[in-house]
Amino acid sequence: MIGTRKDLLGLEDLSAEELVSILDTARTFREVLDRPIPKVPSLRGLTAANLFFEASTRTRLSFELAEKRLSADTVNFQTSGSSVSKGESLKDTARNIEAMGIHLVVIRHQASGAPHYLARNLDAGVINAGDGTHEHPTQGLLDIFTVRERRGKIAGLRVAIIGDIMHSRVARSNIWGLTKLGAAVTIAGPPTMMPAEVERFGVTVARSVDEAMEGADVVNILRIQLERQRGTLYPSLREYARVYGVTSERLKRAKPDVIVMHPGPMNRGVEIAQDVADGKHSVILEQVTNGVAVRMAVLYLLAGHKAQGEPPVENVPTEAKQTHGEPSLHPRR
Ligand code: CP
């Protein structure tokens, strides 16, 4: 089934088998990144366009690096300085980009569903790099990959996701992926930042951060998405930190070997205390490193079959080679 997709739009519509296939492929690319020359020719001859209609540091750099590590050509687009500022539509922008011979489009957009719209209208493979409050699938994948590398499994783990759940596309992708792979997910945060009927996502809603933290193997802390909030959803940042901030004191309720995650950018001293962000349980920078390998896996699985010829044997990760020619994540037309 993974071989019948052309796009990665979210984790909601992926099966557990597809998720595992991506995670396994990412592991082989993670090994590539530790080589003296961390580059393979898997996407030689292909061109990827990175369209970022919203600000990004990690995701944009990580995709560009992943594309370069796979020997693809890359072009980058940011709203400022583009003809979008003159009123050009998303569809016209994308059509013009595709007319230049682009094989893969990575898009971040403030509107939920923008990547789906492009996927329907472009022959190029489309990867969602974050759409509104909907999904951020490669962030979800890199979070799950980091947990799996640290714990050796996902099934049976207790994962606490803390913070602004309502506005978080990272939370949604994590919840879909983790629950499909058998983790028990508990969420906590201000009632004003909880989506209605959130239990239908298959999670437990804790009454407090302390309750969510109890016995957790993993604590994933979310940024307050100030840019997506209409009106004030909590009294003050100081009050938020007092009631919902993850401190080392609160962390004592989790398992002794708990891992602490944050997708970035962090509001230090608000949702996460300084000593937790930089402490012994933190794997926050490991998430960033793993993100490159995960994005290499997604790019490879979606477009490896379009690349020019088979890559040299010595440069191909074994498991990636096995999936070559039969991968990917959204129905190809
Ligand atoms: N995690 C994440 O999406 O970070 P950026 O906004 O910097 O890409």
- The CATH architecture of the largest domain comes to 3-Layer(aba) Sandwich
Strand arrangement across the biggest beta sheet = 7-6-5-8-9
List each distinct ligand once: phosphoric acid mono(formamide)ester
| Count of DSSP-assigned helices | 12
Order of helices and strands: HEHEHEHEHEHEEHEHHEHHH
Mean pLDDT: 90
Strand content: 5-15%
CATH superfamily of the largest domain: Aspartate/ornithine carbamoyltransferase
Q: Which runs of at least 5 residues are low in confidence (pLDDT < 50)?
A: 310-315, 321-328
Can you identify the CATH class of the largest domain?
Answer: Alpha Beta
Number of separate domains: 2
Number of strands: 9
Radius of gyration: 20 Å
What is the third-level CATH name, the topology of the largest domain? Rossmann fold
Main sheet, how many strands, which sense, barrel? 5 strands, parallel
Q: Name the structural class.
A: alpha/beta
Summarize the amount of helix as a percent range: 25-40%
Silhouette: globular
Question: What's the N-to-C terminus distance?
Answer: 14 Å
GO biological process, one term: 'de novo' UMP biosynthetic process
Pathway: Pyrimidine metabolism; UMP biosynthesis via de novo pathway; (S)-dihydroorotate from bicarbonate: step 2/3
Keywords: Pyrimidine biosynthesis, Transferase
Catalytic activity: carbamoyl phosphate + L-aspartate = N-carbamoyl-L-aspartate + phosphate + H(+)
